[in-house]
Amino acid sequence: MEEIEAKFLDINVEEFKKLLEREEAIFIDSFEYKRKTYDSKDKTLAEKNAWVRLRDEGEKVTMTYKERFGVGANSLQDAGMKEIEIVVSDFNLADKFLTELGFIEKFYEENKRERYIIDNVEVDIDSWPMIPSYVELEGNSWDSLKKLANKLDLNWDNHSRCSTMQVYEKYGINENDYGVITFEEQIKK
Question: Is the pTM of this model over 0.85?
Answer without folding.
Answer: yes
